[in-house]
Amino acid sequence: MPTVAPLDLEGHVVAVHFLGDVPFFATAAGTIHRLDGGEKVTEAHQGLLTCIRDPFSATLISGGEDGKVLRIGQEGSTTLVADVPRKWISVVAGGPQNAVAWAHGKSSFVRTSDGAVREFPEERTVEGLAFAPKGLRIAAARYNGVSLHWVATNAPAADLDWKGAHNGVTFSPDGRFLVTTMQENALHGWKLDGKAGENRHMRMTGYPAKVKSLSWSPKGKWLASSGAPAAIVWPFSSKDGPMGKAPQELGTRADIMVTQVAFHPAEEVLAIGFIDGMILGVRIADGKEALLRRPGKGAITGLSWSSNGKLLAFGSGAGDCGVIDIAA
């Protein structure tokens, strides 16, 4: 079994990410701990609500109960992106050309590299944000669908409609598909590369719980999800994605729910975190499983691979965290 270097933190860990080979652990209290020649702490927020890794730069982006949006560098430095007093910032996204997005209420906001901020109002509360992999375009998840906005133009939004509450959103790495997590224990997808006006729907249902964690495989052939007693992995390699296809179920454990999923950065290997703190590694090709961590004190709330894929960091709702050396 791989070796585990433990890290015990106070309280709930909201997210875990690597910047290079340095693991970061963000707590609900607002502190961000990194293991970089010893444990170092950044006091980021008065109450932290979200912390993501910017897919377009080697930084983290966080939002808090203090109304602040921060960009956090590899040495723990913080840069203030936005300060919105008396608003809770629970939705952020990182985009191309140093763009950052955040949302509160019925609007999303994008700050571009020149410091300009644009507001994109919606008819309903914005619950999720994601930038397209190419071009400066933002997707805002809301009730009854998603709005797609070009940031640099005044073109009207493209609306992708589907009834129900959409509370998270992600683009496939090639930009051909858009997928949302829903309030009703389901995913919904749209195929974006069809003819004009032909954004075909993909319904991905049957989950016993809400899907709170998604991860694309390195080349976008698979989308893994939590929300069941196995990782539910949908195929996206064909031109129509998962339409008419059944998902794979990996790491099945009777009645023990998957809470986090994270694909290896280079291989089709999935790390799966469970509600009892256990972590499995599973190979897509043959379903072969490896026990990476035995059950712990709390549900796994964050999983992240180092850039070289040799280390896997994890965090939990009880604060028992650590780094797994896969190569050991």
From TrEMBL:
<dbReference type="InterPro" id="IPR011047">
    <property type="entry name" value="Quinoprotein_ADH-like_sf"/>
</dbReference>
<dbReference type="Pfam" id="PF00400">
    <property type="entry name" value="WD40"/>
</dbReference>
<protein>
    <submittedName>
        <fullName>WD40 repeat domain-containing protein</fullName>
    </submittedName>
</protein>
<dbReference type="InterPro" id="IPR015943">
    <property type="entry name" value="WD40/YVTN_repeat-like_dom_sf"/>
</dbReference>
<dbReference type="InterPro" id="IPR001680">
    <property type="entry name" value="WD40_rpt"/>
</dbReference>
